[in-house]
Design a protein that fits this description.
10 helices, seven-stranded mixed β-sheet, 26% strand, 458 residues, 3 domains, Ribosomal Protein S5, domain 2, Rossmann fold, nine-stranded mixed β-sheet, alpha/beta
């Protein structure tokens, strides 16, 4: 059997070389070359004479739809992020920082899948079988249908798949596996891509679901999930702070379900426990007598979350540039809100240290929280409280106008269900038909000045 032909490709600019180079001659990047197999260069055929496969071109109306079978994991929040469960023949990537709970979630869920009668093959390149069993005992994931292995060669793993014939395959983590066809070490981008591609081809042929775990490193996910997102069917990221017990499972890409979608978990000694009503959890410890706190409504996938925005504005004791810090959302948005309020409302933030935090360790990237961020900053600066029963929803433009947001109805319904009696929304919502019948007081505002007049005059 002929040895597979490989080449070295710069992971920055794509320059190709027959051997490894320390510095790329194209982009001058150091240590950017990774070995990859050459594809599509053997047994080339003349496309003009080669017969067309599968009937060649056909109208899209004649294509038969896929009837994919789904397996539920037994964990409702995990199934939510997967779009209803694992699809046969699908390849799912779960990324996250080391120690965030990825292995715990998969071992816990696969224990339930195995107890339902499906065979599961759990292959770990980081832990021994004895270590996996010790954790499975703590999580209550022991089952005769759960097979474990510590093999790291992908060709040997494929032989294990032939022997076990599992319904679900777990690879933990993708950076530890290698293929014998490449001489580079495990964890390099070439190895990671080639291992993932081999598994991708194998599971499609067998109609078997596979889940890959990938670590995110400090330097931008080198040889990790970012190199695989175009290969896999579903990409899920595990988010959370080790200082908090709550974890978020966020879907970034899903060919078999909606995106973005989130699942919320609480980390406990017995494993990850689903949080069915996360809004109540995030608001449980809200202070009742402190300025700089406001409730905002964020839409994460199909789920509406009410979260608390906290702001602290205090005189800076340092000489020079005052401190500006944001936790849980983009700091640039905070800087933008400060500039808008200084220009349009005449509020003075110069010389002030400013800190903004999304309580509970959750990360929110939606612009609908702009109005809440601006209100929390003004509340702390003025040292005036905002009514505890008020929810604020709206995006803020550069001229200070409050702009409309999507899915306003479920946001208002969730706020009313949790006992809030007033909601401040963009004025444009008054013209549409997106508002539900509600007993809440709905306040329509055109700009920040109107919004502040309402919240600081009551």
């Amino acid at each position: 059997m002929a040895k597979p032909v490989s080449e070295y490709i710069c992971q920055t600019c794509g320059h190709r070389a027959p051997k490894w180079l320390g510095k790329c001659p194209e982009c001058a990047e150091w240590n950017s070359f990774s070995e990859e197999l050459l594809r599509g260069r053997k047994n080339s055929v003349n496309h003009q004479t080669a017969p067309a496969k599968n009937g060649g071109v056909q109208p899209i109306t004649d294509v038969k739809p896929l009837n994919k079978k789904r397996w539920t994991t037994g964990i409702s929040e995990f199934d939510r992020t997967l779009g209803g469960g694992m699809v046969e023949g699908s390849l799912t990537l779960i990324g996250g920082n080391p120690g965030i709970g990825k292995s715990t979630l998969l071992l816990q869920s696969m224990g339930q899948v195995a107890n339902s009668g499906q065979k599961v093959l759990y292959v770990s390149g980081e832990e021994s079988p004895a270590q996996i069993k010790l954790r499975a005992e703590r999580l209550g994931a022991l089952s005769e249908n759960l097979f474990i292995s510590s093999e790291i060669c992908i060709e040997e793993i494929q032989r294990l798949i032939d022997k076990v014939a599992p319904a679900v395959l777990i690879l933990d983590s993708i950076q530890t596996f290698y293929t014998a066809e490449l001489s580079s070490s495990p964890g390099s981008i070439g190895q990671v891509r080639e291992v993932a591609f081999k598994i991708f081809q194998d599971i499609k042929k067998r109609s078997m679901a596979a889940l890959l775990i990938g670590h995110i490193t400090k330097d931008g996910a080198i040889a990790g999930p970012k190199a695989l997102e175009h290969i896999v069917d579903t990409v899920i990221y595990f988010e959370g702070d080790k200082g908090h017990s709550y974890r978020l499972l966020r879907t970034i890409k899903n060919r078999f379900g909606p995106t973005p979608e989130i699942g919320v978990f609480e980390m406990r000694p017995e494993g990850l426990v689903t949080v069915e009503n996360p809004s109540e959890i995030f608001l449980a410890e809200r202070p009742t007598d402190c300025p700089g706190s406001v409730i905002v409504s964020s839409l994460e996938g199909s789920r509406t979350l009410l979260v608390e925005v906290q702001a602290l504005v205090s005189a800076s004791s340092s000489i020079g540039m005052p401190r500006r810090m944001a936790t849980g959302f983009d700091q640039n948005r905070m800087t933008l809100m400060i500039a808008i309020m200084e220009k349009r409302l005449g509020l003075q933030f110069q010389g002030e240290d400013i800190f903004v935090n999304i309580a509970g360790g959750i990360k929110v990237n939606e612009p609908s929280i702009d109005l809440g961020i601006a209100a929390a900053l003004a509340s702390s600066l003025k040292n005036e409280m905002i009514d505890l029963q008020t929810v604020m929803i709206g995006e803020v433009g550069l001229t200070g106008e409050v702009r409309s947001v999507t899915q306003l109805e479920p946001r208002i319904i969730e706020a009313e269900r949790l006992g809030f009696n007033r909601c401040i929304v963009p004025f444009t919502a008054k013209k549409g038909n997106s508002l539900p019948k509600s007993k809440m007081e709905i306040c329509f505002v055109k700009d920040l000045s109107q919004a502040f007049e309402i919240i600081f005059s009551s």
